Structure formats: structure tokens, C-alpha cells
Amino acid sequence: MTFWTAHLAREREPVLLREGFSWGALLFGPFWLLLHRAWIPAALTFAAFVLIGALVRDPFQAIVYLGLMVLLGLTGNDLRAWSLERRGFLLAHVLTARTEADALGRLLTARPDLAARMAPP
Question: What Cα–Cα distance (Å) separates residue 23 from each residue in 16, 26, 72?
Fold first, then answer.
């Protein structure tokens, strides 16, 4: 089973985040953060990549880059949650489910009032 966190804001659809390691954040770094509208973490990550390129010499540069990428993989979803919080979303539920669709189903079962937000106009 996978853990999911449900983040809710007024008049917006809920956002579900999978807890754990993020392969997208590991492989694509700041671009993955930009895709998920985590602007501040993306800018800071990009700045870190530039600083590493400028300050760390060649034999160790690849190791430091790899370390930063692994750190992004470990914390990518937490950075997304932080960005959601800054946009007014609150952590409302922690769910267990195999897929995101199952987690959404469990959320809507626990909170039927959210189904009205999800319905098409």
C-alpha cells in the first residue's frame, strides 16, 4: 500500500500527493518542480545547480550533483506539499491506497462534500 496526503483549499479540487521517493524529482530536478508549480523550490534548486557548477571543481562536481539529485528525489513531494501550503491548501487527510484513483475514491467516501467540487459543470 502507498500513503497519500490530501490537500484541500476552498473552491478548489483536492490535490493528492504520494508520499515517498519521487523518481520525477530525481531525474528532472527543477523542471519537475516547475511542472508542479513549486516555483520557489525550483528557483532555489536551479540556483544550487548553478552554484555547484561554479564553486565545485571537476572531480567532485558529479558527486555533489548526484547528491543534490538524490536529495530532490527524497524531498520532492515534501517541497510540493510546502508549495501547496503557501497557495492556501491545507493537509486534510492521510490515505492508504494502491493508486491515486483509489485514494481519491477513499477521500470522496470520507468527505462526500468534496464530490460537488469534482463534478463537471
Answer: 17, 5, 9
